[in-house]
Specification:
alpha/beta, 7-stranded mixed beta sheet, 11 strands
Length: about 240
């Protein structure tokens, strides 16, 4: 496997989560969510660098309470910017020369299995760009701000639509080129797509949620111990027959 640098953005405000502190500090099995997320990557042999990006507001608290833990894990801590894209840009400036791939994974996605991570790494090694994603199912409705259905979308409008997850993994030169273009996006794969480079999809899992609300946190606490472990799985390729 190629050498991978992992960027874990956690500099958002988390306003939708509520409460008196950033959601990244919410506990999952007696440790903060962001620590749990980081540990998924620091345990992988092909990860040569892990960068955690927090907000300037949270940085003093992170350093005081968790600096020793992060140092022991080998995690580099940097401050983010006003947008997610700026936070990733700040991290890109610190990526090690030896890294061949760069993975970007949300700090608020603690329920990611190393099995899924390694599958995306392998696909990005082959194609240059890959992400986890889930196909959309069911009936979709457009809803007004007042909570009333405005429209039920015909199925043909969302056939072959997938919801992006993270990690999203890219050849280092591609991601640097994409960010050098100066565009902003909430999805790194979209910046690669703008370069005209194809992005491969690796089927994800519904458990790999981004924690946005307290209910999401309850779900994450319930399922985090159910994630597949590498020794429990067999090799697979995206869109393998029978997988979906």
């Amino acid at each position: 496997m190629p050498k991978v640098a992992v960027i874990v953005p956690g500099a958002g405000s988390g306003k939708r989560f509520g409460g008196g502190q950033n959601k990244i500090f919410a506990k999952i099995h007696d440790q903060p969510m962001f620590i749990h997320t980081l540990e998924v990557f620091t345990a992988l042999e092909d990860v040569v660098q892990t960068i955690f990006v927090c907000s300037a507001k949270d940085a003093p608290d992170v350093k005081e309470r968790f600096g020793g833990h992060l140092g022991f894990m080998g995690v580099t801590l940097i401050e983010g910017g006003a947008t997610r894209s700026q936070s990733v840009r700040n991290a890109l400036a610190k990526v090690a020369d030896e890294a061949e791939l760069i993975a970007v994974h949300d700090a608020a996605r603690p329920c990611v299995s190393r099995v899924w991570v390694q599958a995306v790494f392998a696909e990005a090694d082959k194609t240059g760009a890959a992400l986890l994603a889930l196909p959309l199912h069911g009936t979709l409705k457009r809803v007004s701000a007042s909570g009333v259905v405005d429209e039920t979308l015909p199925r043909e409008k969302f056939d072959n639509l997938w919801e992006a997850q993270t990690p999203q993994v890219f050849r280092k030169d591609l991601l640097l080129q994409a960010y050098a273009a100066g565009r902003d996006a909430t999805d790194d794969a979209a910046l690669i797509e703008a370069l005209g480079h194809p992005v491969s999809v690796v089927p994800g899992d519904p458990r790999n949620i981004k924690v946005t609300t307290p209910n999401d946190l309850t779900f994450a606490r319930a399922v985090v111990q159910t994630l597949p472990r590498p020794r429990e799985t067999r090799p697979f390729h995206p869109f393998q027959e029978g997988q979906w």
